[in-house]
Amino acid sequence: MSIPQTAARAAIFLDRDGTIIEDGGFLTSPEEVVFIPGAATALLRLQEQFALFIVTHQVGMARGIQTAEEVERVNRHILDVLGEEGVVITEVYCCPHERSEGCQCIKPNPFFPNAAARDYGVTLEGSFSIGDHLPDVELAQNVGGTGIFVLTGHGDKHRDEVPPGTPLFENLTGAADWILNGATPAA
């Protein structure tokens, strides 16, 4: 399987926990990973038109609950399972910091989308971010894209915090349907 061409393509920036996989807390082992039903199929459809990136906040590393090696093993497992389904994730970007540290890589700062544009030539205009927390939505908005909120993971708990007009769907499948059926990205 070849990696999809990314140059001059828009991207989808995906939250990991609560969007692609169930939010199981601070995962330290691949055996703890549970995929959200339909996620792989949705990603397979999206990659026909978009480069796919995972942007995840793994604060457990800053708190000493997870090691970088454990997080990498979990990420590798996710990529392997998705790869078996034909899904290619271009890159996994991971912020290991506490929000209070004020790092540049934590969502919604555009550090990782800008890195994707620089390193893979993706265009940020027309890109999307999808996740179950407001910083996931704001990530795309901060680079001129469209943020999408999903109700999986912690999404249902935060539903009332979602600004009016924000695209909101039950899951990644609903978000993919909307995008692929001609969603009008933010300009």
Describe this entry's structure for a reader:
The structure is a single chain. This protein is α/β, with parallel strands linked by helices and 187 residues long. The protein has one domain: HAD superfamily/HAD-like (Rossmann fold), CATH 3.40.50.1000. It is built from six helices and six strands, in the order βαβαβαβαβαβα. It has helices at 39-46, 68-84, 111-120, 134-141, 155-158, 172-180, and strands at 10-14, 51-57, 91-95, 123-131, 146-150, 168-169. Strands 3-2-1-4-5-6 form a six-stranded parallel beta sheet. Helix 4 (134-141) links the parallel strand 4 (123-131) and strand 5. Helix 1 packs parallel to helix 6. The protein is globular. The relative contact order is 0.20. The mean pLDDT is 92.
Spatial strand arrangement across the major sheet: 3-2-1-4-5-6
Number of helices: 6
Run of helices and strands = EHEHEHEHEHEH
The unreliable regions are none
Short recap of the structure:
The protein has 187 residues and is of the alpha/beta class.
Brief descriptors of the model:
single chain; six-stranded parallel β-sheet; 187 residues; alpha/beta; Rossmann fold
Please specify the SSE layout and strand pairing:
Blueprint (H helix, E strand, L loop, with lengths): L9 E5 L24 H8 L4 E7 L10 H17 L6 E5 L15 H10 L2 E9 L2 H8 L4 E5 L4 H4 L9 E2 L2 H9 L7
Parallel strand pairs: 1-2, 1-4, 2-3, 4-5, 5-6
Helix pairs in contact: 1-6
